Amino acid sequence: MPPSVLAATGNNAIVDHVVVELRHATTPSVVVATRGALVQRDGDAVGMDGSSPVHPVRGTR
Hints:
single chain, 61 residues, mainly beta, three-stranded antiparallel beta sheet, 3 strands, 36% strand, elongated
């Protein structure tokens, strides 16, 4: 992650990170895919670049 991502201030400041998981519909203990995301001060979850939306995780069937 570029240091500039952490330089944002105000509501867009990065305050935490999360892991988004796509789980199997009938067997929720099975993780199909994962993606990292960042949490901004205002509660928005954004991509690891600090600004793009977190797109749905694609898995295999």
